[in-house]
Design a protein that fits this description.
Strand content: under 5%
Structural class: mainly alpha
Shape: globular
Order of helices and strands: HHHHHHHHHHHHHHHH
Largest sheet: none
Helix content: over 70%
Number of strands: 0
Oligomer: single chain
Distance between the termini: 35 Å
Radius of gyration: 22 Å
């Protein structure tokens, strides 16, 4: 197999591994607040929103050390062990206790930082400037198939159920745990990409550089260093990258993806399940909503990722489309969903928004949320992978640090804010994020143009 074919196969395996893991985890996050409201236990006093805020809060802090972990044990083992913690979190719902719920939340937060830093590293070292957009789109589309399969399973399991029994819960979460473990073991199929031939001056300066099995780009660039030196170097690089002009410009866009991640993955499904005006199938509609989000994600990831290579206008038009798509979705949600739906008790809410509640409009909004999210994320993955290919692990650690801390903030305020206030925050940050992305893209294009002139 050619080196390019081997790298493409690695990206596909990476996508399938994440697809299995997040079939379990994203489905878990989508339904957990609804499940918790239905618990028949006086020993459990947890909140799904609080759990997710802990996960993303710990996630954000752990991103500061994640490049060091990836540098020391390599991206392959990093993803495997992180996946085991994800599986443990899901398995906790089979017999939940408050202490195990929040302990697992902390552990998954740490694991998530390592997992996503390693993923970004594998994506970068298996890509080139010409195919980073294609590879980002392939990975994103495969990842978002997770929203389709897991939520379809939930729909058929809970169809017509007004209340989620212990047996309903256990059946779903045992299946999700097994699916997550399958994804963990797929990471062992990823093979080391063919190393690029170093330029002559690099060979002279660093005669001892070797590419080791499952090593990240950080390790490759750190010849003859001990593990502690590699870890410290990765941490310092992450700190330096976080204050570069390009990363600071992208930080608002990344922050927006954290806020809307919280909304579509945790809040919106809960809102749909709380709408009694949707009838007895309101709970199972959470699964259908997740499927439509997944369809939007898959369509956007596949189309915009594949078109990235031949798009003469760059990344800005795709981000603009994502912004418009989300604004349309937010407006329709504002009209269709009751303002107290995120905070409604287990019996739901009887309130009506500004139009007669429509299941069709609700599912259309789910699709638009997924499509808009894929527009932002495929382009952010592409631009970060392009700008920081030589420092991919620290760069993606900074990316996930910003995204996760904003997701944690959003899950915290989701416990208290009515729906219309949450939508207002999304609109304001989304607008500012799109503007800052446009500027960052222009900076990248200008730098590449200046580099081309210098080489003439």
């Amino acid at each position: 197999m050619s080196p390019e074919g081997k790298s493409l196969l690695n990206i596909i395996i990476l996508g399938f591994g994440f697809m299995f893991m997040f079939t379990a985890f994203q489905t878990c996050g989508n339904i957990e607040q609804t499940v918790i409201k239905s618990f028949n236990s006086t020993e459990f006093h947890g909140s799904g929103y609080t759990s997710m805020s802990i996960i993303y809060g710990v996630f954000s802090a752990s991103n500061l050390i994640a490049p060091s972990v990836v540098a020391v044990i390599g991206p392959q083992l990093s993803m495997f062990f992180s996946g085991l913690f994800y599986s443990g979190y899901i398995a906790m719902f089979i017999h939940p206790y408050t202490w195990s719920f929040y302990t697992a939340s902390v552990l998954v937060g740490i694991a998530a930082a390592v997992l996503w830093t390693a993923q970004g590293n594998v994506l970068a070292i298996n890509s080139t400037e010409s195919n980073i957009g294609r590879n980002s789109g392939i990975f994103w589309a495969l990842l978002q198939f997770s929203l389709f399969f897991g939520n379809l399973f939930v729909y058929f399991e809970w169809h017509g159920h007004v209340h989620i029994s212990d047996r309903d819960r256990q059946t779903v979460f045992i299946a999700l745990t097994v699916i997550s473990l399958v994804g963990c073991f797929l990471f062992f199929l990823i093979r080391k990409p063919e190393p690029e031939a170093p330029p002559p001056e690099t060979s002279e300066s660093f005669p001892q550089v070797e590419s080791t099995e499952s090593s990240s780009s950080v390790v490759v660039l750190a010849p003859a260093q001990g593990l502690s030196s590699q870890a410290l170097d990765a941490f310092l690089k992450a700190c330096k990258l976080s204050v570069t002009k390009e990363m600071m410009l992208l930080s608002i866009s990344i922050a927006y993806t954290g806020l809307e991640l919280t909304f579509y993955s945790g809040v919106y499904g809960t809102c749909i399940g709380a709408m009694t005006r949707f009838g007895q199938d309101a709970k199972s509609l959470i699964g259908i909503s997740g499927i439509f989000i997944g369809i939007g994600e898959i369509l956007g990831g596949g189309v915009f990722g594949m078109l990235n290579k031949c798009n003469r206008y760059g990344r800005n038009p795709v981000v603009l489309l994502g912004l418009i798509t989300h604004f349309v979705a937010f407006y329709l949600i504002f009209l269709n969903i009751a303002s107290d739906a995120p905070l409604a008790p287990e019996k739901g809410t009887d309130l009506q928004a500004y139009i007669t509640p429509s299941v069709e409009v609700a599912l259309l909004c789910s699709f638009l949320l997924g499509l808009g999210d894929s527009c932002f994320n495929t382009q952010l993955l592409s631009i970060v992978g392009f700008m920081y290919r030589e420092d991919s692990a620290p760069a993606f650690a900074v990316f996930k640090f910003i995204q996760s801390i904003m997701a944690a903030v959003a899950f915290i305020y989701s416990n208290y804010l009515l729906l219309h206030w949450q939508l207002l925050i999304l609109v304001l940050v989304g607008f500012l994020g799109a503007l800052s992305f446009f500027v960052a893209e222009w900076v990248v294009v200008s730098s590449r143009r200046d580099s081309d002139y210098d080489s003439i």
